[in-house]
Amino acid sequence: MLGNVVRVAAVAASGGGGRLGSSAAGAMLTSRTFLKRTRAGAVVKVVREHYLRDDIPCGAAACRLCGARPAGAGLEARPAGAASHLCPGPHYLLPDTNLLLHQIDILEDPVIKNVIVLQTVLQEVRNRSAPVYKRVRDMIANPEKHFYSFTNEHHRETYIEQEQGENSNDRNDRAIRVAVKWYNEHLKKMKNEENIQVIFLTNDRNNKEKALEEGITAYTCEEYIKSLMANPDLVDRLACISDEGKEIESGKIFFPEHLPLSKLQQGIKSGIYLQGTYRASRDNYLEATVWVHGDAEENKEIIIQGLKHLNRAVHEDIVAVELLAKDEWVAPSSVVLQDDSQNEDDIENEEEKENILKASVNKNMLRPTGKVVGIIKRNWRPFCGMLSKSQIKEARRHLFTPADRRIPRIRIETRQADTLEGQRIIVAIDGWPRNSRYPNGHFVKNLGNAGDKETETEVLLLEHDVPHQPFSQAVLSFLPKMPWSITEKDMKYREDLRQLCVCSVDPPGCTDIDDALHCRELENGNLEVGVHIADVSHFIRPGNALDEESAKRGTTVYLCEKRIDMVPELLSSNLCSLRSNVDRLAFSCIWEMNHKAEILKTRFTKSVINSKASLTYAEAQMRIDSAGMNDDVTTSLRGLNKLAKILKKKRIDNGALTLSSPEVRFHMDSETHDPIDLQTKELKETNSMVEEFMLLANISVAQKIYDEFSEFALLRKHPAPPPSNYDILVKAAKSKNLEIKTDSAKALAESLDKAESPAFPYLNTLLRILTTRCMMQAVYFCSGMDNDFHHYGLASPIYTHFTSPIRRYADIIVHRLLAVAIGADSTYPELTDKHKLADLCKNLNYRHKMAQYAQRASVAFHTQLFFKTKGEVNEDAYILFVRKNAIVVLIPKYGLEGTVFFEEKDKTKPRLDYNSEVPSLTVEDTTFRIFDKVKVNIMLDASNIQHQKIRMVLVEPKIPGKDVPANPTTEASVSNEPEKKKKKLQK
Amino acid sequence: MAALELLSDEGYRADGRRAAELRKVRARMGVFAQADGSAYIEQGNTKALAVVYGPHEMRGSRSKALHDRALVNCQYSMATFSTSERKRRPHGDRKSSEMTLHLKQTFEAAILTQLYPRSQIDIYVQILQADGGNYCACVNAATLAVIDAGIPMRDYVCASSAGFVEDTPLADLSYIEEASGGPQVALALLPTSEQIALLEMNSRLHEDHLEEVIEAASKACKAVHAVLDQVVRDHVQEVTALLGD
Amino acid sequence: MASVVLSEAEKLYIVHGVQEDLRVDGRGCEDYRCAEVETDVVSNTSGSARAKLGHTDILVGVKAEMGTPKLEKPDEGYLEFFVDCSANATPEFEGRGGEELGTEIANTLYRIFSSESCVDLKSLCINPREHCWVLYVDVLLLECGGNLFDAISIAVKAALFNTRIPKVRVLEDEEGSKEIELSDDPYDCIRLNVDEVPCVVTLSKIGYRHVVDATLQEEACSLASLLISVTSKGALTCMKKVGKGSLDPESIFEMMETGKRVGKSLHTSLQKILDEEESLGTTRQKVGFLG
């Protein structure tokens, strides 16, 4: 046989060989192969190229071996971090992934500097926790911190391949160790008089042992932090992630084991377990409900009762639950239980309490009941609250009681318990072992004295998840450099509208002016009306840190005396604020209208304007009204006002609703900044004039971006409420012999207009307030993901937000879309990705909701402050709702709403009779109906320092058996209150 | 799991390249003996074969013959195993018909077709492994194959793609970069005259950035040109050395 | 295939040569041309190989995909063959021109692999009746210089040898629902035993004698050939007469004997180089089409 099969041997490949563009980087090629499951479930082999390079700098400032100097600060040549007795020499730190994830609080301390963050670590962090990733990125961008990110996976000498029998975690651990070794050898070559060492920080015992075997200096975070001589208090902020073996707690097991994720997913797929969001009960720490995800009709809401069944789940966690057998089902208890035991291991006591729950079972009320078998995703955040100091003197371990009652108490270790007592502090949960009654956590931050205005504001921001940290260096780096002026380049796609007589009308004291208007007569007799909106998207470029931060914040949050900006102040109050007599960039929407306010032409353009006047509503109103004034601004205003009236009428004819809700404003004492009086806002004609044009601009823009991007337009909709929502309104009106029609928005608006009672002038307002409560929430959405665009309240088929880009992120996106639509700016991939837009909308809706809650909480807090100084008062009130055991009243004078309970702790309960048909509530012999006028006594209840509240008690009509001081002596209560308060603080 | 980071803050792409860097290009001419010209190219993990038959008489119907120039006939096909999820058919689908058309346009612009009236030149390209820039690899391979066949061209045709991520143009996109959905430009260039033989762009990209992206793509094309030129020179040297023996 | 047109004189020359056991390229009647084989040439396949036999150039890619077992064989996976006669080989294959030949070759492959013992199909089963591996064996014909079937069978065998199928675990819970889990370790994979995979030996009748591994020219002189598939142990698994001429029974037996003998040694040398290549592991520099 002549022919033989031969192996093809490698010969030097001909051809140009590898050249990487114009770069001189000698790069080596390798490939990474991995298997991936596609969405359809197929297994595919993926091969990706992986280039290894020689030109990646080590980041050390003193290094001359690495040619290219890294951008940014890099590592200091002489790292002068905190002195440590473990490593007295100069050193850099190199943490592993878990350390970064868990001990980020410590690493953020200014004392910690010169840290090398490996790409391996950074990628893992990125995949596991987006918030931590962002914090790490911020630190890397901060020149003070000297954090350096080393692209080790593409460095020829630090890249390693996964070995046989090695899982990817082990591989990454090895990659980190290889990088540490490389660094140490590399830094030795620097021939400095003092050799810089790289210290490997890991809390993983195995990894540390392996590192030590390989001759790497490695410490746990705890060892290192404790070795810092000058900063003993840092130790408090260590997360206590204890190794399984090294439990401080007693060996007693409180909780069943959590099942591993793979088991859970399997179980969920097969239906034995249900996945849902865990919501702890506010009133009862032994009870929670799980809202099952998905569209299942049955068992949507599962009750969990008892410590063992709750099984260490924390409010908002995504958990897997298993349903119990029907005979074990329970009813939601109406008992209020607070976890106040001091003895941690007092499990018998718990069981006793659990029995209390079971005793009060009503057979008809049984609900699906389950137990938590595992956690799918923890949603822990830092929690605000107060320290409950251990009764044992000198103890280091204390319990922390979060302000949110749904969060369990957390055990922390601290040496500063004495200082922290009576302070609002932040604590983060680190873990919850099976043998611990409470989760373990660590102290993060001291916010200040409980009850202080600053502290409480901070608390309410934190509790409503309002991002309010000062903007990071990375974010600020994207601001325009001052002094800023408009350049030739800026003018490329802009019209110069500086000659137009533009003015702005805003509430007094407004510094973030995002809209301005003009109106002039054209030669053809028509009117030209322009709405000019601050061109924020000119300054905030997609994808940079500034943009990401604004997108995350979503909205500016207005509190009673504080504003949490969405964008840095330079933009919000200066460059983007359309102040008078300065050139400002704007995005203009210009209509040509006839005198009947019919739009003939609509045009959008980026522009430059120079506002001639920044007016308040009152000033504008005055100009319009004073016949003597005939300057350009005033003429313009009059034109606008005239058109606005027509527009408003048209809108209302179309069925737009005008609803009212009492808006409260505080008069502040100029020195103490304490509220001295409350006032409900009054509306002027000019308010509605500005509003009318903003609505018009929003509608015009919505139409334009939808025409251009039918799939990617960010719109705002307001769904029509289901008819049943109106039941209460209709019933309430009926009780006053009025008819409210709810079959359409137009009918509703008309019937509301007619609902007047000469004897009861406030009735109409009350009806409108009640109508507001029947409405659905308006939401942002992406046009490609929804088919219902209707805005019910405004009776517009399409709507969006365009007019307030300084304070709403949605408007920025809308600006970008519009800019692309008119060719004035470029697009980017995320803008035309409807899934990304939908995610963005989700965040914006969430932030808006939270901002509203925070605002309400702020008003509530200031109301409390107000009543703290004012003492007890008696005021007229109207009943808004009737509940089973209480009435909800509105006090018009303060725009304040509150609940009057008829049952009190430790007192005999009055006879209550609730009729849901009317609805009415009869207490003893007095019957309460909606809109009844009553008189209530208002006071501050400060018995719980974490949860102060306004308490209302009925004064008129009198109910027998309930004794309330009809005429409280104001002096007495005023002097009483603060004393009580002081006592609390001193304790 | 977070989406893939296309360009890290440190300036590296997912595979470790910098924004303007090309993948490794390796090529060889004269892969097959029976065809008139053939070549093979690797651009990273994208691998393509091209063969050229002709110029020869018209095959099949003579009515298609052009009286003043040669007909350039192309076929683009992808091996069924070339993609990570198996393809059901190698050619004839919409995408490959489009590619076929693009190739035809590109090479009609480059080959001196007027020299061969009433004849036909067949260019067949085959993707063996697909990892982004399939069209570009095919054009580059076909250029070498046409040269191998000794058919005169105005210039080399060099192709490369470019994308735009985080305000930075990226040269020579890999599959994951293409799949991210950002704007991308495929450019076929006659490098010496800087004439564009084919330009294709998808997804929205602002006019202002277009220049930058095209600039990045044409820079990449020129880098490809340098490699191809070296391949041709090496090949010619090798062949003459063999002939000399 | 590049068609060869031979004159009568040329044909006579070839036929007379064969008669004397001396072929145009110097080989004897039972000699193969030098075959070049390289595996793992397409990195995103589960297994691949390129085989060159003279000018015949074949690339085979194997892709393992998850599918459902066939009803009649609930506990086995299966193989699917597809042959793409690329226009690379000859302009005649452009468009749908190569389909007929492709289908013919694919059908032959199905028949060759229909034998039970050929590949252990049970090892491809993940869980009976629900999941199994389907191996898509895709043959790409790049150039044709005679003796297509033999070259394809060599390439297929080499590619199957090279195939690595990811290991998956079937997780089953109490209620019987199943979840498939992929191993995290890329080295964790199933290899196929290819000992029993046959190779094709085509014997072409030229004049009164027969030759193996005919070139295009020789094929043009042959009226009929016998295609047999032989295992490494010399067992015959499939046989097929091709070509427009006829064969007498006597010569069929002779050809079978030759085929078995030649096939056995073909297997031996193929296995030898596959093992050799395997032993080089990942350090081997791949050549592919660059050599």
Automatic annotation (TrEMBL), chain A:
<keyword id="KW-0540">Nuclease</keyword>
<dbReference type="Pfam" id="PF17216">
    <property type="entry name" value="Rrp44_CSD1"/>
</dbReference>
<dbReference type="InterPro" id="IPR012340">
    <property type="entry name" value="NA-bd_OB-fold"/>
</dbReference>
<keyword id="KW-0271">Exosome</keyword>
<keyword id="KW-0698">rRNA processing</keyword>
<dbReference type="Pfam" id="PF17215">
    <property type="entry name" value="Rrp44_S1"/>
</dbReference>
<dbReference type="Pfam" id="PF13638">
    <property type="entry name" value="PIN_4"/>
</dbReference>
<feature type="domain" description="PIN">
    <location>
        <begin position="91"/>
        <end position="209"/>
    </location>
</feature>
<dbReference type="Pfam" id="PF17849">
    <property type="entry name" value="OB_Dis3"/>
</dbReference>
<protein>
    <submittedName>
        <fullName>Exosome complex exonuclease RRP44</fullName>
    </submittedName>
</protein>
<dbReference type="InterPro" id="IPR033771">
    <property type="entry name" value="Rrp44_CSD1"/>
</dbReference>
<feature type="domain" description="RNB">
    <location>
        <begin position="494"/>
        <end position="824"/>
    </location>
</feature>
<dbReference type="InterPro" id="IPR029060">
    <property type="entry name" value="PIN-like_dom_sf"/>
</dbReference>
<keyword id="KW-0378">Hydrolase</keyword>
<dbReference type="InterPro" id="IPR022966">
    <property type="entry name" value="RNase_II/R_CS"/>
</dbReference>
Automatic annotation (TrEMBL), chain B:
<dbReference type="Pfam" id="PF01138">
    <property type="entry name" value="RNase_PH"/>
</dbReference>
<dbReference type="GO" id="GO:0000176">
    <property type="term" value="C:nuclear exosome (RNase complex)"/>
</dbReference>
<protein>
    <recommendedName>
        <fullName>Exosome complex component RRP41</fullName>
    </recommendedName>
</protein>
<dbReference type="InterPro" id="IPR015847">
    <property type="entry name" value="ExoRNase_PH_dom2"/>
</dbReference>
<comment type="similarity">
    <text>Belongs to the RNase PH family.</text>
</comment>
<dbReference type="Pfam" id="PF03725">
    <property type="entry name" value="RNase_PH_C"/>
</dbReference>
<keyword id="KW-0694">RNA-binding</keyword>
<keyword id="KW-0963">Cytoplasm</keyword>
<dbReference type="GO" id="GO:0034475">
    <property type="term" value="P:U4 snRNA 3'-end processing"/>
</dbReference>
<keyword id="KW-0539">Nucleus</keyword>
<dbReference type="GO" id="GO:0000177">
    <property type="term" value="C:cytoplasmic exosome (RNase complex)"/>
</dbReference>
<dbReference type="GO" id="GO:0005730">
    <property type="term" value="C:nucleolus"/>
</dbReference>
<keyword id="KW-0007">Acetylation</keyword>
<dbReference type="GO" id="GO:0003723">
    <property type="term" value="F:RNA binding"/>
</dbReference>
<keyword id="KW-0698">rRNA processing</keyword>
Automatic annotation (TrEMBL), chain C:
<dbReference type="GO" id="GO:0016075">
    <property type="term" value="P:rRNA catabolic process"/>
</dbReference>
<feature type="domain" description="Exoribonuclease phosphorolytic">
    <location>
        <begin position="197"/>
        <end position="261"/>
    </location>
</feature>
<keyword id="KW-0963">Cytoplasm</keyword>
<keyword id="KW-0007">Acetylation</keyword>
<dbReference type="GO" id="GO:0035925">
    <property type="term" value="F:mRNA 3'-UTR AU-rich region binding"/>
</dbReference>
<dbReference type="GO" id="GO:0071038">
    <property type="term" value="P:TRAMP-dependent tRNA surveillance pathway"/>
</dbReference>
<comment type="subunit">
    <text>Component of the RNA exosome core complex (Exo-9), composed of EXOSC1, EXOSC2, EXOSC3, EXOSC4, EXOSC5, EXOSC6, EXOSC7, EXOSC8 and EXOSC9; within the complex interacts with EXOSC2 and EXOSC4. The catalytically inactive RNA exosome core complex (Exo-9) associates with the catalytic subunit EXOSC10/RRP6. Exo-9 may associate with DIS3 to form the nucleolar exosome complex, or DIS3L to form the cytoplasmic exosome complex. Exo-9 is formed by a hexameric base ring consisting of the heterodimers EXOSC4-EXOSC9, EXOSC5-EXOSC8 and EXOSC6-EXOSC7, and a cap ring consisting of EXOSC1, EXOSC2 and EXOSC3.</text>
</comment>
<keyword id="KW-0698">rRNA processing</keyword>
<dbReference type="GO" id="GO:0000467">
    <property type="term" value="P:exonucleolytic trimming to generate mature 3'-end of 5.8S rRNA from tricistronic rRNA transcript (SSU-rRNA, 5.8S rRNA, LSU-rRNA)"/>
</dbReference>
<dbReference type="Pfam" id="PF03725">
    <property type="entry name" value="RNase_PH_C"/>
</dbReference>
<dbReference type="GO" id="GO:0034473">
    <property type="term" value="P:U1 snRNA 3'-end processing"/>
</dbReference>
<dbReference type="InterPro" id="IPR020568">
    <property type="entry name" value="Ribosomal_Su5_D2-typ_SF"/>
</dbReference>
<dbReference type="GO" id="GO:0000176">
    <property type="term" value="C:nuclear exosome (RNase complex)"/>
</dbReference>
<dbReference type="InterPro" id="IPR001247">
    <property type="entry name" value="ExoRNase_PH_dom1"/>
</dbReference>
<keyword id="KW-0694">RNA-binding</keyword>
